Amino acid sequence: MTARSILVTRATGTQGIAVCRHLRQKGFIVHGLARNISDERTAPLKGLDIEFFQGTEEDRDAVDRAVAGCAGVFLNTMPNMRESGSEARQSKTVLETAKAAGVEQVVNSTSIGVGRLDTIRSDLKTSLPTQVIQGKVEVEAAVRDAGIETWTILRSGYFMNNFLWPLGNVMFPELASERKFISSYAPDTPLALIDPDDIGAFTAAAFEDPSRFAGEVFELVGEKLPTEQAIEKLSAAVGMPIEAVYRTAEESEALAQSNPMVASQLMTLPIHKLADMTRAKSFGITMHTFDEFLTREKDSVRATFALEHGDAIKLF
Fold this sequence. Notes:
The protein has 16 helices and 12 strands. By secondary structure, it is of the alpha/beta class. The chain has one domain: Rossmann fold. The strands form 3 sheets. It has a 7-stranded parallel β-sheet, with helices on both faces. The longest helix has 17 residues.
């Protein structure tokens, strides 16, 4: 049987790399769309025989070139913080172009927050993080209504690599430089963690067996850990103590007015608690624990905590 071709959007990002790798392992032909397809950006996928196309998800001509001959699309959108409605525009361009090209299947990656908007505090509903979640609600609706034969939605949890460079140095600036994890969580706040590699595995499985995954919406969470325990595991992997500092409620409320990272933590407190792991795990696809992720990514762990704060920000 002739191998199916799949278009992976944002192919050089965290999710895109994982999806490309798993698709190639399953024998799919992969087209990768990315804004930057330089050797440096595509290096993690070197040797996998992926055909790259330069462009963004809003560039209809680029999408048209990239999707030609493809039977499926992995759709991953990201917000442009300077422009409202950016994710809706990205999904509209990709989905319309894909349908016109004869694409039969789309797998869409969003966030566990999409199904939990009713848990967000009323005073945070206009915050930037909530607007991001609302954008993904619109993307999911576009996927369902696109007229493409088969769709699957993956609502991913909190990425395990959010603790590592480069994301960790932005989300938790003191983590690598001062060995301090400063957050608005509490020690017992559960974190609904996902190894990005598992997103790749689920996506490849969905393209391998479209009928089984058709119309399914999964919350992808590999492990729920109390914040304190997650930091203890990270500290053990680093080989040095990391101090967990928990802001008071008053400190968090004051910072949330101007700091979207703090607002995001407050917004997601109930979302992490309610995340449902059972449906995804019932499909029998291996989901990795935080310990397993840290062991596999030991080189990234070492590199993250060897960086000085200034170097980390400059590199990002």
